[in-house]
């Protein structure tokens, strides 16, 4: 198949639009930096905590060019990476947020434009007929067997709660100008995510209802060729007219770019703010921190680009990432937010417990065999030893309980004087003392305020 020139032109226009938006947003960030009371690092990472509500909603919803354009996989990845690195480097969260608006609009419009053409293409039958009936392929509405219920429950919990510990999520929330705006952003973006998911379900249903032998794609089917992860561009390429598939390119590229720029900035902010500023150089100036952020964006971008060449399916890296977030980071997040007894000792033990158990439990996606076999562990259809017990959720709960238990034990050990305070590496006794003092001051102020209010209401 020859190079798709019209598609290449559309992609060039798309990338110029995104790059132009990123540059414009970077210029705006420079103006905001002069007016903002915060430092330059806050402007870069949190957009001065003044991100627009609509922009915030869009930014919370977010290698396939080679399929439609017949462009080399290497070139496709490099082009996407370079553009994302450049505009993230220039404007930080401002550039990421405003380019996400363009990208999400393109995703929404492009996919819904393509759906009618896919549903009415001559190679597919009515998806309502194939939902529960065997036609060219198995029914696209599956069933959950009892012996697989644990695995399905585990996957559900993973997808529902795993993303809550993502740095990119809190970066958007902290960029809101008020608590109300942050709450509205969360609820509105969650509803918008559901709407964006509808075209994906329909496209998958159409692909499962297609006689691929009647198309130029031929047999075996994409699922049998292990290309299910690329079903969107494959369906656009072989089941729609050329001009429609070109429109769909925008949706595919926008989805890739929206995810990449968020990962770039969140990873850079993690290193610069949490590691470099808090551990390596606590006295680092604002100018120095901005350079650290820029260097981090480039390094993370290059590392991420290199990882994509290890396996054509970036989905594998995403699944492993959200898995680690759910089993290791989510318990830490819950304890920090809801349990005051939590401290550094419990967090360390919980982290080590979570990561060791997760590694020993194995992962078929990266060909890591399980050393710990939970109940129901057996060979799957591909002959890989797989855990059918909800082991990720079990590890998450064990990690959570470990944090609380060891936090409570160490708190008793140091507060009761069972161990000298000089061994208190995390200074939990000092922190508890300062917390108690702050609580007393707050209580005193509240009592004084109540007394003044009572005096005002009883005076003539």
Structure, briefly:
By secondary structure, this protein is mainly alpha-helical.
Provide structural commentary.
The protein is an all-alpha fold. Helix content is 70%, strand content 1%. The chain has a two-stranded antiparallel ribbon with strand order 1-2. A hairpin with a 5-residue loop joins strand 1 and strand 2. Helix 13 packs antiparallel against helix 14 and helix 14 packs antiparallel against helix 15. The longest helix has 47 residues. The C terminus is likely disordered. It is found in: Membrane. Belongs to the sodium:solute symporter (SSF) (TC 2.A.21) family. GO terms for molecular function: choline:sodium symporter activity.
């Amino acid at each position: 198949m020859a190079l798709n020139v019209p598609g290449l032109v559309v992609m060039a226009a798309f990338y110029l639009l995104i790059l132009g938006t990123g540059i414009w947003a970077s210029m705006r960030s420079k103006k905001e930096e002069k007016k903002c009371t915060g430092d330059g690092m806050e402007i870069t990472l949190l957009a001065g905590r003044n991100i627009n509500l609509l922009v915030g909603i869009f930014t919370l919803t977010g290698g396939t060019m080679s399929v439609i354009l017949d462009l080399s996989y290497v070139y496709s990845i490099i082009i996407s990476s370079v553009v994302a690195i450049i505009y993230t480097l220039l404007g930080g969260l401002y550039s990421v947020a405003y380019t996400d608006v363009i990208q999400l609009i393109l995703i929404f419009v492009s996919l819904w434009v393509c759906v009618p053409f896919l549903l009415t293409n001559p190679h597919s039958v009515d998806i309502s007929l194939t939902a529960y009936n065997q036609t060219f392929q198995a029914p696209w509405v599956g069933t959950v067997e009892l012996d697989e219920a644990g695995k399905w429950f585990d996957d559900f919990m993973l997808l529902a709660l795993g993303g809550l510990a993502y740095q990119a999520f809190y970066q958007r929330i902290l960029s809101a100008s008020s608590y109300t705006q942050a709450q509205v952003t969360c609820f509105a973006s969650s509803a918008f995510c559901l709407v964006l998911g509808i075209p994906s379900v329909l496209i998958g249903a159409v692909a499962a209802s297609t006689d691929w032998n009647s198309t130029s794609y031929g047999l075996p089917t994409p699922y049998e060729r292990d290309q299910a992860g690329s079903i969107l561009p494959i369906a656009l390429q072989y089941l729609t007219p050329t001009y429609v598939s070109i429109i769909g390119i925008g949706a595919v590229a926008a989805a890739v770019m929206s995810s990449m720029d968020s990962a770039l900035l969140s990873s850079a902010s993690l290193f610069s703010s949490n590691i470099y500023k808090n551990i390596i150089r606590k006295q680092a100036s604002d100018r120095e921190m901005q350079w650290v952020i820029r260097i981090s964006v480039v390094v993370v971008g290059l590392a991420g680009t290199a990882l994509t060449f290890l396996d054509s399916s970036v989905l594998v890296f995403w699944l492993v990432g959200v898995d680690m977030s759910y089993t290791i980071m989510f318990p830490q997040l819950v304890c920090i937010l809801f349990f005051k007894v939590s401290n550094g000792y419990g967090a360390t033990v919980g982290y080590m417990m979570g990561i060791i158990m997760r590694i020993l439990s194995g992962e078929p996606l990266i060909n890591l065999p399980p050393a710990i076999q939970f109940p129901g562990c057996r060979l799957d259809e591909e002959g890989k030893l797989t855990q059918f017990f909800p082991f990720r959720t079990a590890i998450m709960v064990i990690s959570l309980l470990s944090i609380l238990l060891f936090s409570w034990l160490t708190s008793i050990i140091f507060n009761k004087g069972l161990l000298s305070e000089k061994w208190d590496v995390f200074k939990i006794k000092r922190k508890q003392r300062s917390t108690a003092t702050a609580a007393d001051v707050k209580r005193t102020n509240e009592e004084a305020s109540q007394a003044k209010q009572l005096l005002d209401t009883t005076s003539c």
